[in-house]
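Module 6 notes. Inverse folding takes a fixed backbone as the condition and produces residue identities as the prediction. Think of it as a translation problem where the source language is geometry and the target language is the twenty amino acids. Below is one complete input and output pair. Work through it position by position during the lab.
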């Protein structure tokens, strides 16, 4: 089974694609998974929103066409203090859901708290703890892409690097695998 994890946003949308055995449900998790690809879609802030959404659609559509995932996993929308950001993320999620619908790929959603709990061990984990959790999983995964992404986290709290979005997307995909294995 090929799983596409997505960390949605209009400025930057991270994605990570992993494969797992088709019979993972109900089995003990044995890390027999492989990181296939990861990356991000970045749109210029000085571009009109409708153009940014078209770019996001086009690039995510290309990712889906290239990798042909069996499932898409996306982070649920969290309404924090910044409603403007929440609306923007909601628009990006809608575009991603539209892509999934056109390709007839099912979507599963997880809250950020669930992803952090499953990958880093605590629902209130910070970015570095989530990244460390992903690195621990990647150390047990197959493939050269896993080695690439397992390097230490770049960026700080004030300045995110694109790795943060890709790592978050891989964390969402790993969360889904852990949830499937637990069923």
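Target side of the pair, the amino acids:
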């Amino acid at each position: 089974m090929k799983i596409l994890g997505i960390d949605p946003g209009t400025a930057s949308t991270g994605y990570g694609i992993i494969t797992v055995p088709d019979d993972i449900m109900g089995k003990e998790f044995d890390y027999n998974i492989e990181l296939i690809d990861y990356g991000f879609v970045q749109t210029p802030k000085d571009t009109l929103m409708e153009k940014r959404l078209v770019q996001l659609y086009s690039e995510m559509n290309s990712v889906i066409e290239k990798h042909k995932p069996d499932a898409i996993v996306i982070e649920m929308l969290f309404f924090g203090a910044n409603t403007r950001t929440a609306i923007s993320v909601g628009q990006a999620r809608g575009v991603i859901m539209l892509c999934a619908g056109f390709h007839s790929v099912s979507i599963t959603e997880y809250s950020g708290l669930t992803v952090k709990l499953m990958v880093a061990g605590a629902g209130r984990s910070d970015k570095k703890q989530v990244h460390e959790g992903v690195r621990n999983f990647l150390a047990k995964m197959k493939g050269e892409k896993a080695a690439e992404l397992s390097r230490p986290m770049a960026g700080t709290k004030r300045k995110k690097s694109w790795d943060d979005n890709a790592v978050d997307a891989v964390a969402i995909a790993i969360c889904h695998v852990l949830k499937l294995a637990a069923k």
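Reference fact for the lab report: Residues 2-182 form a domain with the Nucleotidyltransferase; domain 5 fold (CATH 3.30.420.10).
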